[in-house]
Amino acid sequence: MKKVILLLLICFSSLCLTGCTSKEPKDLLSKIKLKNKIVIGIKNDSKPFGYIENGELKGFDVDIAKSVSRRLLGDTTGELIEFIYVTPESRIIDLNSSKVDIIIATMSVNANRSHVVDFTAPYFVAGQALLVPDGSKVNSMESLNTRRVGIILGTTGERTIRQLAPNATIIGKKTYDDTFNLLKESKVDAILADDSILYGFIMDKKGYKILPARYTKEYYAIALRKGKETESLKEELNKHLDYMQQSGRLNRIKEKWIPNLHIN
């Protein structure tokens, strides 16, 4: 009798486990709603998009992330977001290893990245530009051919330099602050990066300017893993980005963080 009861208990436990497993959602949107949390990869050194000030993470991308969390989870305070800090080099790895659910980190859409990750519609358009000290003799991309230029590793800057100034000496660093320090210490003659990021440098530091030419169009979008798992999440994110555009919310966020991007 005891053996029969034990056998029945084992069978019942197995059925319970099987039932629980079968109810486990497979798509990422359902998983996010089930755990009532979204994990977002973001930068913390890219003013005005994602940076820390007085111990608080803030910026353009942070506001986009909070708006997304409000849409998906009804999160009015941002408390249901877990932010994971990423770099240009680590963000795709962190996304595809499921360390984060999505990436909102000044990530521009290009063909190479589209082979390994998926993207939403763009939420911002930037352009690569040169940052130089006031009084610099560098006045164009061509004038870099005999000079040194700093870039951020993992961005598209190196490709732009190779195409437009093939004889320039390229020095790469992992962070924006380290790259700016190259310019500050006269170890490079210019920095090539997205104008939106360069604007963050000159917000706080005098003696530098952004040259007027723009060499690319960089469409920032939210990155997701490829596959059926993320299809419903991508659809929902695109609906929200369209709403933000139509309602004027995107423009309000831009005016808040980058009111005068058209600087010379």
Structure, described:
It is a single chain. By secondary structure, the protein is α/β, with parallel strands linked by helices. It has helices at residues 2-22, 28-35, 60-73, 91-96, 111-114, 157-164, 176-184, 195-204, 231-247, 249-257, and strands at 38-42, 45-46, 50-53, 56-58, 81-85, 102-103, 118-126, 128-133, 148-152, 169-173, 190-194, 208-210, 218-224. Strands 10-9-11-8-12 form a 5-stranded mixed β-sheet, sandwiched between helices. It has a 3-stranded parallel β-sheet with strand order 5-1-6. The protein has a 3-stranded antiparallel β-sheet with strand order 2-3-4. A hairpin with a 3-residue loop joins strand 2 and strand 3 (50-53). It is elongated, with a radius of gyration of 23 Å. It starts with a helix and ends in a 7-residue tail after the last helix.
Descriptive labels:
single chain; 264 residues; alpha/beta; five-stranded mixed beta sheet; 13 strands; 23% strand; disordered N terminus
